Structures are given as structure tokens and as C-alpha cells.
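[Discussion] Sanity-checking designs against the backbone

I'm trying to build intuition for which residues belong where. Below is a C-alpha cell string of 448 positions. I'd appreciate it if someone posts a full sequence so I can compare it with mine line by line.
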């Protein structure tokens, strides 16, 4: 078991055999994989209204498709795949996973009923479960400790970039060719990049003898990994806090397009017309470019701030996201209550920046509270917690609350969704409090 007295990192582990050029090359491939995973995951949100009309769905069913259906396999399969990653080639696990989720994305475009779409989205989650645990642990093995938060933040750019591409591409293609074609186009690139990942990424264990002294050292039993993490309250606090931020982010992200269509549909049509676009295409461009660019800035700033803060005090890993969560809250209210749709769209810059500052600090913390041979398992457990809370229940909660306010509350579909989005944003305060509590054990729990 690793405890507070364990040396930070053995010298053999700290000395990476990979030069800066290869690390940048590998990080680019992994970033490409993450971009495609989020593109395939988020394209559903811009297609929500046409899918709802075509398949005759309720909001809770849209919430299932964008959240729980995907998260069911994505979260539960992460741990067994991570155990494979502790023993076998992580690059080839990533390659196989990419081919699988890309194929199911294409099949999403063939769905004729809600159950068929549900199975297809579950398949996407099945495939994507193999990417992050492997990628996080590879990046941690490739990268010196002092640059870990920045490297993981760079990888996390896949979230805003993939979301940007999914919204822009999905909206434009849906306007021109229909929502089904958007799924076909979203799934195709992953099949090609899967081959690149499998053949071009290197498995560090082949080059780092300290990690391959014995099979037991390279891959300790799962019970040992759980025991190590069980004594790390920082890990669990950061995971739950990040999960609540994801709960708000995924929940609102899944319904943002639907919100603008319902509340500002006529204004959107007028805004789109001068550019020769329809409402979905214009909205996809606006949400994708504004939110995506802001998310890129926030992700990079989060990693940069965390690395700087942690050099002075390791508690900076928790302080940065705690402050960001508090500062983000007021903007949510104004986005969903202002009358002018362009003002609302521009206001999304604020939560897009502040809501992505946590990626680098949280992912770096998870990789730093365990020794190198347990990193993939730590990443999988982190992703299980935050995605089960955020991705699994965020969209479903927003959809259920929207339906309840619309029918039982008598607000109607548009106002029900508006106030569902506003009320959901309050969870950022709980997240901020938990991040702040994590400061107390941060210094004691970091070991590598």
C-alpha cells in the first residue's frame, strides 16, 4: 500500500525515455481520439429537436439518449478495461475502442425507433469506455510530473473542440441532408484514426524497465488498487465535485439547442436567414464556435493555473475549480432569462470558460494520488464517478424536471425547460464546497 511516507516517484519512473517531440506527437494523436469521442457523443445534442420530432420522443427520452444510455456502459466498463490496460497494450486498446464507438455512431443514423437509438448510443458508450483510462495513464507516463496538469488539460481540449465540431457539423449537415447523415459523417473519421493510434503510439512499459520488473508490480490486484484509493479522500472529493460540475455542464449542454429552438425559434430564423442558413445550422455554428472557443481557453487556463498554483501549494489543484464554480453560477441565470437570443449566446462564454477550468486540476490529482502502475485504474474510477453523476444523471435530471414543470407545473414545454436549466445550475455551489473541502487532504494524499 502507498501512504503519505511513500517517495513521490522513483527515479526510474520520473526519467521519461520519450523526448519532447514524441510526447507532442503522441499527445496529438490522443487529443484527436478524444475530439472524435466528444464529437460522436455530443452531436446528438444539436440533433435533439429533429430526432424528438422524427421518433416522437419526450424530453426524458432525449435525456436518456444524451446521458444515461451512453453513460451506462461508459462508466461500468471503464474499470475492467482499465485492468486490461494495466497489463496489455494501451495503444491497441484505444484503437479497438475507437473503431467500436465510431461504428455505433454510424448505426445511430439508422435508428427507426427509440429502443434502436438507445442501443446504438449504449454501443457508443461501450466503445468510448476504453479511451480515457488508457489515455490518461499514457499521458502521465509520457510526461514529467511538473507538466502533468498542463498535458492532461491539453488532452482535455478534446471536450470543447469535439463539442464545437459536433455542434457545427451536426447543425449544418442536418440542415442540408438530415440528422441521419450527420451521424454517418461523425462516425467515419474514427475508423481511420484507430489505425494510426494502434501503429504509432508506443507502450511506455516496453521502455521503462522500472514499470516492468514483474507482472505483479506492473498490475497489482484490483483489491490493492481499491485499498490505495480508499485511503485517499482527496481523490473521492475531487471526483464527486467534478461530477457535480459535469452534472450541470452535460445536463444543460444536452438541452441548450432545444432551449434556443423553443424560446427563441423565430428570432433564430431571422438571424440565420442573412447567412443562407436555417435555424439548426446557425445555432450549431453559434453554440459551437462561441462555447467551443471559450471552452478551449478555459481548459488551457485551468491546467496552466493549476500547475502554477500547485508549485507553490498543492492545494491549488482544488482552489482553482472551487473558485471557478462559484463565479460561474450567476451567468447561468442570465443566459436562460434574457430576452435577446444573441445576448444569451454571447453569455455562454462565461460558463464555458469557468466550467472547463476543472479538467486539468482534477485529472492531474487523480494521476498523482497513486503510483504509476495504478494510474489507469485511478482514471477509470474517476471517470466512473464523475460520468455517472454528470453524464448519466445530468441530462436525465434536466429532462425529467423539464417535463414535470411543463405538465405538473403548468409552465409548458418552453418555460418548463427554461426553469429546469436555471434550477440545475445551483448544483455548482455544492461542487464548489466539496472542492474547497478537498484542500484539507490534498498535500497528504499526493504521492507521484
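Best answer:
Here's mine. Compare freely.
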Amino acid at each position: 500500500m502507498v501512504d503519505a511516507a511513500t517517495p513521490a516517484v522513483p527515479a526510474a519512473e520520473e526519467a521519461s525515455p520519450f523526448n519532447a517531440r514524441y510526447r507532442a506527437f503522441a499527445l496529438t494523436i490522443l487529443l484527436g481520439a478524444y475530439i472524435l469521442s466528444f464529437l460522436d457523443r455530443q452531436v446528438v445534442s444539436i440533433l435533439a429537436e429533429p430526432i424528438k420530432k422524427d421518433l416522437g420522443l419526450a424530453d426524458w427520452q432525449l435525456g436518456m439518449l444524451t446521458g444515461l444510455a451512453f453513460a451506462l456502459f461508459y462508466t461500468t466498463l471503464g474499470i475492467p478495461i482499465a485492468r486490461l490496460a494495466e497489463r496489455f497494450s494501451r495503444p491497441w486498446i484505444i484503437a479497438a475502442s475507437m473503431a467500436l464507438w465510431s461504428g455505433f455512431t454510424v448505426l445511430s443514423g439508422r435508428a427507426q425507433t427509440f429502443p434502436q437509438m438507445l442501443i446504438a448510443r449504449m454501443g457508443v458508450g461501450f466503445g468510448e469506455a476504453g479511451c480515457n483510462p488508457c489515455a490518461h495513464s499514457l499521458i502521465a507516463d509520457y510526461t514529467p510530473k511538473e507538466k502533468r496538469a498542463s498535458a492532461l488539460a491539453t488532452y482535455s481540449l478534446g471536450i470543447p473542440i469535439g463539442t464545437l465540431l459536433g455542434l457545427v457539423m451536426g447543425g449544418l449537415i442536418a440542415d442540408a441532408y438530415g440528422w441521419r447523415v450527420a451521424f454517418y459523417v461523425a462516425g467515419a473519421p474514427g475508423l481511420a484514426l484507430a489505425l494510426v493510434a494502434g501503429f504509432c503510439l508506443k507502450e511506455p512499459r516496453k521502455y521503462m524497465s522500472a514499470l516492468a520488473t514483474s507482472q505483479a508490480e506492473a498490475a497489482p490486484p484490483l483489491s490493492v488498487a481499491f485499498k490505495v484509493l480508499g485511503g485517499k479522500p482527496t481523490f473521492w472529493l475531487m471526483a464527486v465535485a467534478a461530477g457535480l460540475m459535469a452534472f450541470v455542464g452535460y445536463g444543460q449542454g444536452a438541452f441548450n439547442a432545444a432551449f434556443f429552438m423553443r424560446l427563441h425559434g423565430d428570432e433564430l430564423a431571422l438571424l440565420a436567414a442573412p447567412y443562407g442558413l436555417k435555424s439548426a445550422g446557425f445555432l450549431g455554428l453559434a453554440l459551437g464556435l462561441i462555447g467551443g472557443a471559450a471552452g478551449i481557453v478555459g481548459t488551457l487556463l485551468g491546467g496552466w493555473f493549476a500547475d502554477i498554483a500547485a508549485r507553490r501549494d498543492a492545494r491549488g489543484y482544488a482552489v482553482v475549480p472551487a473558485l471557478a464554480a462559484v463565479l460561474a453560477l450567476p451567468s447561468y441565470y442570465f443566459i436562460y432569462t434574457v430576452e435577446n437570443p444573441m445576448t444569451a449566446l454571447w453569455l455562454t462564454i462565461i460558463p464555458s470558460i469557468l466550467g472547463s477550468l476543472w479538467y486539468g486540476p482534477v485529472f492531474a490529482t487523480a494521476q498523482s494520488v497513486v503510483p504509476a502502475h495504478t494510474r489507469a485504474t485511478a482514471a477509470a474510477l474517476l471517470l466512473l464517478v464523475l460520468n455517472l453523476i454528470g453524464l448519466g444523471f445530468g441530462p436525465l435530471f434536466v429532462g425529467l424536471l423539464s417535463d414535470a414543470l411543463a405538465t405538473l407545473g403548468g409552465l409548458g414545454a418552453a418555460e418548463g425547460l427554461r426553469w429546469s436549466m436555471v434550477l440545475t445550475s445551483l448544483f455548482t455551489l455544492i461542487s464548489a464546497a466539496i472542492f474547497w473541502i478537498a484542500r484539507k487532504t490534498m498535500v497528504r494524499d499526493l504521492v507521484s
